[in-house]
Every structure is written in C-alpha cells, then in structure tokens.
Amino acid sequence: MSLDDYQGVWVFAEQNEGRLRRVSLELLGKGRELANRLSVDLAAILPGENVADLYTELIDYGADKVLWADSPKLRYYSTDIYTRVIASAATEHKPEILLVGATYVGRDLAPRIARRLNTGLSADCTDLDIDEKTRLLLQTCPAFGGDFMITIINPKHRPQMATVRPGVMQPQQKSARKGEIISIPADIENKDMRVSTLNVVKETRSGIGLEQADIIVAGGMGVRSAEDFIMLGKLAELLGAEVGATRDAVEAGWASSDRMIGQTGKTVRPRLYIACGISGATQHIVGMQDSELIVAISKDPKAPIFQIADYAIVADLHQVIPVLTQQLLRHKSGV
Amino acid sequence: MNIIVCLKQVPGTNDMRLDPETGSLIREGVPSIINPEDRNALEEALLLKEEHGGNVVAVSMGPPQAEEALRDALAMGADEAILLCDKAFAGSDTLATSFTLGTAIKKLGEFDLILCGTKTLDGNTGQVGPQLAEFLDLPQITYARRVEVQGEILRAERAFEEGYELMETRLPALVTVTKEINEPRIPSIEQIMQSYREKEVRIWGTPDLGVDEHSVGLDGSATKMGKIYKPEFGKGKVEFIEGSTEDMVQGLLAKLEERHLI
Q: What Å distances lie between residue B10 and A257, B34, B168, CA to CA?
C-alpha cells in the first residue's frame, strides 16, 4: 500500500434535523479548490436518515460525488456509529484528505476517526493549501490560544485529516451540477450504539445572533467595567447591532462568554464592526478580521487593531461613545 | 469507583512570546499550571469519589517539571499520581499522546471512569480525550457540563450549538468536561503538606510502558509541525479620523451614512 493509492478530497456533510450545517457548504467550497489543485474528485460523505434531498445541494455546492448512508439509526449523531460508518468508508475508498467542520459534532467525531485510522488530525484550521511539490495538505491552525499560528503537515499517514473552523471558508457559488451518488454500508445493530441520547434541550442564549449580525459593537479591556459595557449596549441598540467582547473582557466578568469573539469564541463577518477599547490581540483579530468595515476606537495610538481597521479614532471611548450615541439619537429622530 | 483523571501542565499565561532568534516560544519565567479544564475534571472525580467512595489516580504525560502539577493534584485529593516522563515522548502529537496515555492506563488495571478536560490552553485541539477513548475502546461523552453516576450508569449533559443533550452510557466510559461543570477546590496548606508527607508521584518511562521508542513521541506522531509564527495583519489603508470629539463623531457618522450602514 503506497500513499499514491489514496486519492480524493472528502468532506463530512454534517446535518442537523434534516438540514445541512452551513460549515458543510464552506468545507465544500474549500474542498473544491483543493480537489482542483490536486486534479482529483471531491466527495461529500453524508450519514443521516431520509436525507436524499440533500444530495443535490451537496453536488450543487461543489461535490463530484455523494457517499450516502441512510438509516433510522443515523438520524441523530452518535459517536460509535458515525465513526464506524465513516472510518469504514475511508478504509475502503481511500481518500487522501478528509475535512470535518469544527462543530461540537465534528470535534467529537474527527479525533475518533483519526485514531481508528491511525492518522494525523489538525484542529480548528483557518487555512488550507496544497504544497505544489509534495501534494501535501498544508494545515494552518492557531496555537497557544490563538496568539500564534502554525502550519502542520501529515506526510506519511492517510487520510490527512483536519477540522476546520466554521465561518472562515467560503462556499462556492451554487449552480446546477452533475454528480454521482454512491451508497455506503450502514448495517448497525442497537448494541453498537453505546451512548444514547435521552433528551435534547434547546436553549436560547443572548448573543447567539453574533454570527448572523450585520453590525457588531465590541468591547475590550479599555471599557474598564461591566457598567460601561452597558453604554456599548445602548449604542448597539440604536444601531440594531449585537454586542461582542474580547476574551479578556469576558474573563474580567464584564460580558458573558457567549459574547466572546476570537479564537476561543465566535468568528464573525458583519458589515460593520466597531471595536471599542480593544488592543487587537491576534486571537481576537482572527475572530473578526473578515468584517467588511472595521472602525476602531482606542486611546493607544499603537494598538495593533489599527493595522486592520478601515477607520481609526484615537481617543478615549468613554468620551466618544456617549457623543456618538447622542448624535445617533438626533440623527434617528431627524434633528 | 475507580477513576482516572488525565491532566496536563500548561503555561499559565495568555501572553506567550516568541524568541526572535530561535523562533521558539519563550518558556523561562512563565508559570506553569494544571490545564484549567483538567482541574475541573479532577474536581469532578473527587466529588464522585466523595459520593460513591473509591480511588482517584491522576496521570500526566510531560517533562520532569510536570511533577508539580501532579503534586497539586495529590494536594487537591487524588490518591495516586503517575507522571509519564521520558525524552522519547517529546514531540508527541495527539495520536502519540493518546497511545502513550492509553498504554499506561492499561497497566493500571480495572477502572470505571476516565475524566479529562475537553481542551488545553496551549494545544487547544480537544483531541486527546476522544482519541484515548478510541484507543481504549470506551464509549465517550465530550463537552460535558454536568455528570452524574448511579451504579453502572452515567448520565451527562453535553453541550452542542443550540443547547445541550442529556446522554446516557454504561461504565466504563470516558468523559471530557468543560469549565461550567464545577468550581475546583483550592487545597489548604495542611493538605499540601500532607500530600508531600504521605503520597508520592510515580514516574514511568518507555521501559515501564513496555513500548518501543518509535511508537511514541515524534516518531509515533503522524503530524509534523512547521514554524510557529505571529501572523502579520494589515489592510494597509487605515484612515485616522481626527479633531475634537464632536468632529470625530461627525466624521465617522458621515462615513457610515455614505455606506448606508445607518
């Protein structure tokens, strides 16, 4: 068995309640690029129940093939069964690359598959590329809480596996395409499933709209207190925006953790990001650098955030925000 | 209950620096701590032991100084501690780490539960827990924010995007926990002193594990790491809005209006 026997890029298509999670489409977008560079096929692997209507979507977003396993036992994610179905299919069909979204499911599933297949796995990648000479997958991941990046390769084991951060890659343009549908085995006994789900509880969390928000007002250590975060909240309300926070501000107890933006928090891509009292540590920037327009307000003229801002205001946010809020109020009431 | 807790010693700071000459992380002068979520795992083990009786063994793979972290664990209340320490373990990725930890655990005899933190501050992969579970062929529950045991049955609340799921499995099993699960105790000076008097940290290397040097460490790893670097960002064109506070605000509002953002 040589490494050359392994061909093709695979993407795990994660579905939840019969709908594809968006990260699956993002992975297909990146997967398509990688497959084109390598001149190989891109396949989506889709375990589920009654998910035939998703095959077309996967193909239209770039897959040449859909490997499907349909069974009532695959309706909900279960570590043991999903691992078995995917690892067996990978052993049989030998992809050279297997990408999984770094979702709660992905982070439970991918390491298990990698261990079963005795191969390497990198976590939470923010970039993927192909080395021209070696055809190896270059996996760029954050290190040390996100302040640093590192490039990882998997030279001798297959498939090269990576989990990919949701919200970073871009889906391809959807277009009617042709593709092949291949069924893979899903003969599963009840006893194969060692962990059962007794109940699923949905919780509405504040700040959950961050990833969909058009405008975000975010605060960092410069805000200095929980009370002053309320000031940001008032501005946000006027703008129809969500409030975000840096890891340090969350650790200081000024904002709840579901408002955290950055490497260990959420990745956002709003039309407008207003960074208030944020210095611009790398692990925060990686969570918001793709915002369309970035406005940064900070007292420190040397703050790294100014390197990625479109508009910079070097001033104390405690002076600026009240005036901004006031002017906006006037603007809104047509004065 | 016989519980095994896997823990890792990590740098206790959010501010690591790169040595500009060597390109490696500067570790001198950086305090070391038990990885926070591993501390939560140990606390959960101690709570389960208080409820059900039994024994808690703390295991860690690390350099010699990781013995301090295991000392901490003994002071908190772990009954035994084992440090897997050998030059051959250096350069391990999560595949090699799960192999090494798993091989050691197999030598410990029967256990009911393995608890780990979900992720580490430095590696941040969250992979060792599930890979260890796979190596030992155990059912796994990850991202657990609540755990309860009744006889052979373990139930856990596992987080996911939209909320949480209530999961159930039979022991033995492996569970990775998040920091929501509990508030780890801080040992008293007396407990620290007592642990030094009464408990020891056993140290095992490759001969104790009965493994070949090539199946661990860098040789036993599938992934290879390139250089660590600090990424350069720069859109290039930042425009500074200047003047009095009023001027700056007006200036900003004008720009936002131009772009139909307000």
A: 22, 6, 31
